[in-house]
Structures are given as C-alpha cells and as structure tokens.
Amino acid sequence: MQRPPQNMQDLTQAFANGVRHTSIEQARSITRYHEFVRDNVRSVITHTFPMFSQQLPKQTIDHWVNEFLLQSQAIEPEFHHIATEFVRFLQTHSNALPAKVVSVLEYEWVLFNAEINPEIVTLPIKHQPETVTFESLSRCTLQLNPTLQLIEVPFHVENNAIQFIDENEPSQAYAVYRNTRHQVLSQPLGMRDRIVLDPLCQHGAITFEALADAVSTYMPTRDVSAWVLHFNHTNLIWIDKVSNVDSDFATSNQHLSGDLS
Fold this sequence. Notes:
By secondary structure, this protein is an alpha+beta fold. Helices cover 52% and strands 15% of the residues. It has 2 domains: 111 residues, no CATH class; 121 residues, Alpha-Beta Complex (Outer Surface Protein A, domain 3).
C-alpha cells in the first residue's frame, strides 16, 4: 500500500498529536502511551548523557523531556536518533540553559557518536604498533583514526566527572575516537598535540617527513617521532603504509645485475 487511506492518515495524526499533547479528555490508552514514550525518552537522555543529567535537577530534566515531546519534529524512533534529535532540540533553545551545561551535552554526544560511528577501526598486521620503530618512520604515511572528532570545551573530565574551568582560563580540547578494541577514548590535548594534529586534520593522510617539516618550528623531529609512536599505539593515528626502502633497493640491484649479465 503506497499511500494509506485518508481516514487512516487522520487517525494516525490524531494519535501522534494525542501522544504529544496530553489532556484530561483523552482516552486512557493515549495517556498511558504518552507516559511510556516520555519515560523512554527520559531514559535515553539520562543513559546517553549522564554527565549532562547530573548538572540539572530532575524537575529540569523532566521539563525538557516534556518540551521535546511537545515541540520537537523528530520522526525517527531509534535510540540513537532520539539522542541526536534531543541535542538538536536543546541547541535551538540554548539560551534557556547555561552555555557550559549545553557544552557538556554536546561533548557527551561526541562520545556517543564515536561509539555508533559505522567506520571500521581495524589495523592490518603490518600496521600494528609494535611493528613501527623510530628508524622506519621516515618511510611512513600517517592517517587519522576515521572515528576521530575534536572538541573544545570549558571543562576538564576526570573519572567521568566534570570540573568547569574558570572563565579567564583557556578551554580544554579533547580528541574523541574509538580504538581497535571498540573502546571510546577521550584524549585531552595539550598545545603540542594540537600543533601536530593540525596538518594531519588538514591533509587526512601525510608522510612523516612532511609532518615533521610542518611542525619543525615548534618541535624537533625526535619529539614528533615520539608523538607519532605514542598515538599510533593508542590508535589516535596509525601508519597507513611502510615501504621497505632497503628491500626495494636490493631488489632493483638484483634486476640490474641480471640485465648486465
């Protein structure tokens, strides 16, 4: 049935309106369904955004759940869609909440998005961290973890607790991504981390030599090497390609010798 009859469309719309707008005159079944939907939405919010929920009294959370049901045009029923639609909804009402509280919600959505990101995070055997050394880096191409997202927030996160930063202090940047063990990591970034990540973010993939050259004003090559090895191990970045120059050179010499003979 491509298009349902008009009376079915009207009944469906009336039921949806009844779920959003409760009243004393409504049938008890609609009221119960409203309560069921509201409780589900509240559960999604408190479980997906626990640190955000801790910043607000229960009454305030309930208020925004009710407003979301009443005003939001969300039509996707899946768990992750409800979470995303709620973030979008609150962003359009951000003046009604402290900006720092909204930033907690946005940070937790980035964590959630890294978890459900469909990108596959796996490394071929030859790209495993233990196969990379200082000596081989000059022959490497580096790339970012495909689930990586960078976010800057006015707080520090320690043991899943929020500590807001004073207004006169600089904000904190985090690299959020999923590793090969399917764990979502949130890596606080210092100034040096941000300097090295900048050319990586601009190019997506870059040779180690180009990266070291791009940041040479701020970091010696040895420090860049240590940075690359460390974050390759944590899967923030990884080695996309290692070409064995010595082996290639030897092979070409063998072909040359054969030609001469």
